[in-house]
Design brief:
The chain has 192 residues and is an alpha+beta fold. Helices cover 40% and strands 19% of the residues. The protein is built from 5 helices and 3 strands; from the N terminus they run H-E-H-H-E-E-H-H. A 3-stranded antiparallel sheet has the order 1-3-2. Helix 2 crosses helix 4. The longest helix is centred in the first third of the chain and has 26 residues.
Length: 192
């Protein structure tokens, strides 16, 4: 019986280690943001509740938090992609964007309020706090073509520069081309 208990402790430790290893460690200079989200999973007539439903609800909460960060980044960048496109671009490796998480509240099984599946007789709900690496999410959205690659980071404001002595159109096009090559967007306000 002692060997069985030792194996159970060992396998539980391995399971925790694997769960922690599946989350990406923060990089130096990572842009982390904490998000709270609700994760829920529908339970039908033949569904088993318990640990499996709790884990699925937890993963749904993590996906929700990361999806909201992605949608926020896409909106800030002026992207025309919808929420479904953003979430599809971030799937299926959701966990690589989460640095850490914790369950704030385990609401357990209850009557379905959040789940809209026709076969849902019950749902399992958790409230999670997820630490999301915004830089990784942004990089994935850039790679997917949802957010444009620019030299200007999200959240920064434009810079206003006044050029005196620009007296010819060819000189103006050289300035504009040079700044655009470095990721700048040029909006001339006035020529005099």
């Amino acid at each position: 019986m002692g060997a069985l208990k030792a194996f159970a402790r060992w396998s539980a430790g391995v399971g925790v280690a694997l769960a922690l290893a599946s989350f990406a460690p923060p990089r130096a200079g990572a842009e982390l943001v904490r998000m709270e989200a609700i994760g829920s999973v529908s339970l039908g007539a033949g569904s088993k509740g318990g640990a499996t439903a709790r884990q699925q609800a937890l993963e749904a909460g993590i996906r929700e938090a990361i999806g909201r960060v992605g949608e926020e980044l896409a909106t800030q960048a002026g992207a025309t992609a919808g929420p479904l496109d953003v979430r599809t671009a971030l799937a299926p490796e959701w966990k690589r964007f989460a640095v850490a998480y914790r369950i704030l509240e385990d609401r357990g099984e209850r009557e379905p309020l959040l789940e809209t599946n026709p076969g849902a007789q019950r749902e399992y709900v958790v409230v999670v706090e997820v630490e999301v690496d915004r830089a990784r999410v942004r990089a994935q959205l850039v790679e997917a073509g949802i957010v444009a690659r620019t030299g200007q980071a999200a959240g920064r404001r434009g810079l206003r520069i006044r050029f005196d002595g620009v007296d010819s159109y060819p000189l103006w096009t050289k300035i504009r081309t040079s700044l655009a090559a470095r990721g700048g967007a040029i909006e001339p306000r006035e020529f005099s």
